[in-house]
């Protein structure tokens, strides 16, 4: 149940009746301090100013018309016109006991089809740290839509076409077609690139092989496919380590759209959208101009007849909207591609490749930075392989576990280190606003204090240990009865989970869920310190065990949506 939404609707309705303005909206904010009420409606003041009324008098009128007996313990008017609503303990008790522990949040009846494009590595190289953000942010969003019952379609738009593959195929020809050297894609790519840069004959052959590849030459296609298969295998190994839900079946590479590109040009031409500029075919739109006021082109075909990323993306939009029948198409892509997607989305709508009911959304993200404030790289300035980052995280976590729990077996230490190391990397990223750049810092992300994965994993393990110490069934039914202030604060936070999940579906900011889980863990710790669980008796003990159970379930589910595995022991 989204209590905030219910209160917001009721107060908005009363404000509309009083003002005669059906468009007015109240803003209901969850209060951080119980002494000011559990919820606070502050939309009254804005409306009072618009209507030239005394805010406090308007708040009184709203209060007199509100019918919140089901929810409210007290309703107070504070300050110049704030309406403070204190939620009743009886209501909280009832709602917590009604929660479906297998779901926690009521699933959506919305049968919308959501297509999400994320990760999208270039298969010419191994995945590096630049692929991390798009992969884990996209996966968290995908998991949430899927869990909430939407018809979710993952799309991994691999780069598997173009000049660089002619270079790689030519180098493979020189190696006798052997694929054994592809065990290290980065080394293979660098060797091929050096030959391409240093040898004009090799470069000419590479360009010829691009034409052959795109024309369907059987030998080129065979070598290309072997390279692609091994590259995808590398990616899938990383996805498995990172607990990413993408599979080989989600791969829809650039080559998939190759036979559709001519049709895109034909459609744009029929719509009268194409203009020739220096031999290239472009779409010019009034809303995209440079500083001098000149219109910026969306180039869809080069002067030599070749196609560009924009052409492929337009074909992708047409496929996702017309064939997959998507209602929302989400692109989790670097913020630096913002202009590109604005242009492509506008062209797609104008050309009818996507109808007006299909929402095209660029979910941009910033850059992972080193402590020097520059993009995260090795000390020598090289881009860091993703596998190396993961292995370092696990090793650092192992050292941490060994120092805290030296008596654990080596296998137990390794198991915990794998979860903590990978979770720390993922959570450090997900807990930041995706639009922001952030500083990558091992010390802060592996800390057991603050908004970190180790802190949340420890909170979950601590709750589970309560049941284990008392030899109680953590899955049993426990009847909750809210009494103390700390219990009430925890109850309110538990019931806020629905609101947070719905906000994530709407705006696609995983950091909102991270903040919620951090606050929930903090609320639990305060409850645990103030309200003895195993030292209490009878119904009080049963109730507090029920709160522990719901806190653990919510933490576990929230972390699962982020792609983070939990531990019963740390």
Task: Give an account of the 3D structure.
This protein has 570 residues and is an alpha/beta fold. It has helices at 3-19, 43-51, 55-65, 89-98, 132-147, 163-174, 185-198, 200-215, 218-241, 261-270, 309-323, 338-351, 386-404, 410-430, 442-445, 453-469, 485-495, 497-507, 510-530, 538-561; strands at 28-30, 39-41, 72-78, 82-87, 113-117, 151-155, 275-277, 280-289, 295-301, 328-334, 359-365, 368-369, 438-439. The model is unreliable at 30-36 (pLDDT under 50). The strands form four sheets. The protein has a four-stranded antiparallel sheet with strand order 1-2-4-3. The protein has a four-stranded parallel sheet with strand order 6-5-10-11, with helices on both faces. Among the domains are: 3-87, Arginyl tRNA synthetase N-terminal domain (Gyrase A, domain 2), CATH 3.30.1360.70; 163-242, no CATH class. 52% of the residues lie in helices and 12% in strands.
In brief:
This protein is α/β, with parallel strands linked by helices and 570 residues long.
Walk me through the topology:
Elements: H1 3-19, E1 28-30, E2 39-41, H2 43-51, H3 55-65, E3 72-78, E4 82-87, H4 89-98, E5 113-117, H5 132-147, E6 151-155, H6 163-174, H7 185-198, H8 200-215, H9 218-241, H10 261-270, E7 275-277, E8 280-289, E9 295-301, H11 309-323, E10 328-334, H12 338-351, E11 359-365, E12 368-369, H13 386-404, H14 410-430, E13 438-439, H15 442-445, H16 453-469, H17 485-495, H18 497-507, H19 510-530, H20 538-561
Helix pairs in contact: 2-3, 4-17, 6-7, 6-8, 6-9, 7-8, 11-12, 13-14, 16-19, 16-20, 17-19, 17-20, 18-19, 19-20
């Amino acid at each position: 149940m989204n209590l905030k939404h219910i209160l917001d609707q009721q107060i908005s309705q009363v404000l509309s009746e009083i003002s005669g303005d059906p468009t007015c909206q109240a803003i209901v904010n969850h209060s951080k301090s119980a002494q000011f009420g559990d919820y606070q409606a502050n939309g009254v003041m804005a409306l009072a100013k618009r209507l030239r009324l005394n805010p406090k008098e308007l708040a009184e009128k709203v209060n007199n018309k509100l019918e919140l007996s089901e929810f409210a313990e007290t309703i107070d008017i504070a300050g110049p016109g704030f309406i403070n609503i204190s939620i009743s303990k009886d209501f909280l008790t009832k709602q917590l006991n009604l929660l479906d522990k297998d779901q926690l949040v009521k699933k959506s009846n919305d049968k919308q089809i959501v297509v999400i494009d994320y990760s999208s590595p270039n298969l010419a190289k191994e995945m590096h740290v630049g692929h991390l953000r798009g992969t884990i942010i996209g996966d968290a969003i995908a998991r949430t839509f899927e869990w909430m019952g939407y018809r979710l379609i993952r799309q991994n738009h691999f780069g598997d076409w173009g000049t660089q593959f002619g270079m790689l195929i030519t180098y493979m020809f020189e190696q006798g077609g052997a694929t054994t050297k592809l065990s290290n894609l980065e080394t293979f790519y660098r060797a091929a690139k050096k030959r391409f840069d240093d040898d004009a004959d090799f470069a000419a052959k590479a360009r010829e092989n691009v034409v052959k590849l795109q024309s369907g030459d059987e030998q080129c296609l065979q070598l290309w496919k072997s390279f692609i298969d091994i590259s995808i295998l590398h990616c899938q190994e990383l996805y498995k380590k990172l607990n990413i839900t993408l599979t080989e079946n989600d791969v829809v590479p650039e080559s998939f759209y190759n036979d559709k590109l001519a049709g895109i040009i034909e459609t744009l031409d029929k719509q009268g959208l194409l203009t020739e500029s220096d031999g290239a075919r472009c779409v010019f739109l009034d809303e995209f101009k440079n500083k001098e006021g000149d219109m910026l082109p969306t180039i869809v075909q080069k002067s030599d007849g070749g196609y560009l990323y924009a052409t492929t993306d337009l074909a992708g939009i047409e496929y996702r909207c017309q064939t997959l029948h998507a209602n929302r198409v989400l692109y989790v892509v670097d913020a630096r591609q913002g202009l590109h997607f604005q242009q492509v989305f506008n062209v797609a709508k104008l050309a009818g490749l996507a109808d007006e009911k299909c929402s095209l959304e660029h979910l941009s993200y910033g850059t992972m930075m080193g402590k020097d404030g520059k993009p995260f790289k090795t000390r020598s300035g090289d881009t860091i392989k993703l596998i190396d980052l993961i292995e370092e995280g696990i090793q650092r976590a192992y050292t941490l576990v060994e120092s805290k729990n030296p008596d654990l077996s080596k296998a137990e230490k390794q198991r915990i280190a794998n979860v903590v190391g990978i979770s720390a990397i993922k959570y450090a990223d997900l807990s930041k606003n995706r639009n922001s750049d952030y500083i990558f810092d091992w010390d802060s992300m592996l800390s057991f204090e603050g908004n970190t994965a180790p802190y949340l994993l420890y909170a979950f393990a601590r709750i589970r240990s309560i049941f284990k110490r008392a030899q109680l069934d953590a899955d049993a039914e426990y009847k909750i009865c809210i009494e103390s202030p700390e219990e009430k604060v925890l109850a309110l936070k538990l019931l806020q989970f629905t609101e947070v999940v719905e906000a994530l579906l709407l705006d696609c900011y995983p950091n909102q869920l991270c903040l919620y889980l951090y606050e929930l863990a903090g609320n639990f710790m305060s409850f645990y310190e103030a309200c003895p669980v195993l030292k209490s008796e009878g119904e009080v003990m049963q109730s507090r065990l029920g709160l522990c159970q719901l806190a653990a379930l919510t933490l576990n589910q929230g972390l699962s949506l982020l792609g983070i595995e939990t531990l019963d022991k740390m």
